[in-house]
Amino acid sequence: MTTVIAPTSIEIEQPPELEVINMTKRFGSLVALDNVSMLIKPGTFHALLGENGAGKSTLVKCIMGFYRADQGDVLIGKHSRQIESPRDAQKYGIGMVYQHFTSVPAMTVAENLVLSRLNSPGLINWNEEYAKLNAFMANAPFQVPLDVPISQLAAGQKQKLEILKQLYLKSKILILDEPTSVLTPDEADEVLGLIREQVTAERLSVLIISHKFREVTTFADEVTVLRKGKFAGHGTVKDLTIADMAEMMMGERREPQKVAKVQQSDRLSILQVTDLHANKDNGLAAVKGVSLTVHGGEIVGIAGISGNGQKELVEVLAGQRSPISGQVLVNGEPYTATRVEMFKHKVFALPEEPLRNACVPHMSVAENMALRTFDRPPQAKGFLLILKTIRQMAQDLIQQFKVKTPSAETPIGNLSGGNVQRAVLARELSSDQINLLIAANPCFGLDFGAVEFIHGQIVEARNQGVAVLLVSEDLDELLALSDRIIVISGGQFAYESQTETADFSAISHSMAGH
C-alpha cells in the first residue's frame, strides 16, 4: 500500500520523477479523463498531445490541484502526494505557465516576482529583494527588466516573465500550456530553446501542451497522446513521425455513420470567401488567404487541430472579428455580418461555447431565444415588446427542441451545456427561411443524446437546402456529416475533397502540417 505524504516545503536540487497513475475525472455525466497514466522522467522534455477536448487541460489541472480527480494517484519522486491546490503543487516543485498571462499589469516585473512567492512578507525590504532578484536574473535563461510595469512589456516579454516566475519559485517540473500561442515563431524558438537548455542540464523537467508539431519534434524527448479523454499512445520523438503522432491523436479511421441525406440538384452558391486574411488578438496572422464556396444543400466541413485559424475564420463570418483583407459574399452580395445583413440574407450561427458567445447567462431562456427576433413582429410592436408572445414562442421551441429547463423564465446560465446548446440551436433553426448556417464545434463536451439530436438538426437543415459550414475538431463528426471536407493548417487550406472519396492518410498529413 502506498503511503500518502502530506505537503511540506521541500528543497529539490534535481527534478524528481512525476508519474500519473490511472487518473479519472468526471464532470457530471461527462468523463473528461478515463484511466489515464503518464510518466515524466527526470530531466526530460515531454509533450502532451491531443485534439481539443482530449483531456489535456483536465489532466494538468488535476496534477496542479485545480481539480480533484475521482480516481488515480500522482507520484512525485515515487511517493504518492496529496495535491489539493496549486500551493501544494508549488511546495513539491511543480509550476505551471498558463495560456493567459497572470501578472498584474500595473505592477513592475520585480513586484510581480515578489508577489508570486507563498512567503512574501507583509513589509518588504526592497533593497534586500532587489539584491536577490538581480542575483536571480544574472543566472536566468532570459532577461526582463525589473523596473518596467507589465503593461509596457511586449507579449514575448510577458510570456518570458511567466516562465521566469516559475524558475524564481524554484519549480523543478514546469508545465507549459500552449506557451507559444502569443509568440512569433522566432520568439517561440528562442524561449523553448532556452528552456531546452535547462532541461538538457537536468535543472528542469518540462511537460508541454502544444498543437504545433514543429515545436514537438524540435524540442521534446517524449510524447504522450490523449484522445477523447483516454490514453492513445506514447513514444520517443526520435522514433515517431509526425504522421504517427497525428494518427494517435485522431485514431484509426472508422466507417462514417450513415445519415439520411437528400440528393440536391441545381445547387446555388450561397457563401463565397475570397483571399481572406485575419489576425489573432495579438496581431499575429491567423487566417492567411483562404477561399471557399458553400452551396445550398451542402455541408462543407473544416477540419484542423486547434489553433490553426479556424476560430478566427468563424469569428470573421459571425461578425465577431474584422478581417484584414479579402472578400465575403452571401447570395452574391458583399457581407460584413452586421445584424441587418444577417437578417436580410438569413444567416444563422451555432458558435463554440454558446454560453459565452451566443447567450446572456443571467437572462431567461425565453429572452435568449428571442435575441434574433425581439425587435420584430409579432414579438414587438413599434418600440414595445410583446412579452406574452416572446414567452409563448419560447415555450413552443422548448417543446420542439426538447430543451430541459424548469421554465421559460429560468436563467439560461442555470442549464446544462447540452441544453444551452439545444436552446441556441432552437433560436438559430426556428426561422422559416435559413440560407446559411455556420456551426463551430457544435457538440463539444455534450452527451451522446445531445450529439445525435444536434447532428440530426444540422442534416435536416442541409436537406432543406441550407448551406452549412461546419467547423469541428472532431474528425469523426466531419466524416459523418460533411459532403465536402477541407483541412486548415497554419491558417491556410491544405487539403480538399468530397468526403466520400477523401483520403484519410492525406487528411492526417495535412492536419499535421505536411
- Whole-number radius of gyration? 25 Å
Helix/strand structural class = alpha/beta
The CATH topology of the largest domain is what? Answer: Rossmann fold
Give the CA-CA distance, first to last residue. 48 Å
Q: Strand share of the residues?
A: 25-35%
The neighbouring-strand order within the major sheet is 7-8-9-4-10-11
The name of the CATH architecture of the largest domain is 3-Layer(aba) Sandwich
Shape: globular
The tally of domains stands at: 3
* Biggest sheet architecture: 6 strands, mixed
Contiguous uncertain segments of 5+ residues = none
Query: What's the number of extended β-strand segments?
Result: 23
Name of the CATH superfamily of the largest domain: P-loop containing nucleotide triphosphate hydrolases
Mean of pLDDT: 87
Helix run count: 17
Highest CATH level, the class of the largest domain: Alpha Beta
Keywords:
Rossmann fold, 514 residues, 17 helices, alpha/beta, 3 domains, six-stranded mixed sheet
Can you give a write-up of this model?
The protein is an alpha/beta fold and 514 residues long. 32% of the residues lie in helices and 26% in strands. It has three domains: 4-250, Rossmann fold, CATH 3.40.50; 253-346 and 434-514, P-loop containing nucleotide triphosphate hydrolases (Rossmann fold, 3-Layer(aba) Sandwich), CATH 3.40.50.300; 354-430, no CATH class. The chain has helices at residues 56-64, 86-91, 109-115, 126-138, 155-168, 185-200, 213-219, 242-250, 310-317, 339-345, 354-357, 365-369, 387-400, 417-429, 448-463, 475-481, 504-511, and strands at 4-5, 18-27, 30-40, 45-49, 71-76, 79-81, 94-97, 173-177, 205-209, 222-227, 230-236, 269-279, 285-295, 298-303, 325-330, 333-334, 347-350, 380-381, 384-385, 436-440, 467-472, 484-489, 492-498. The strands form five sheets. A six-stranded mixed β-sheet has the order 7-8-9-4-10-11, with helices on both faces. The chain has a six-stranded mixed β-sheet with strand order 17-20-21-14-22-23, sandwiched between helices. α8 (242-250) packs across α17 and α14 packs parallel to α15. The model has no long low-confidence stretch (mean pLDDT 87).
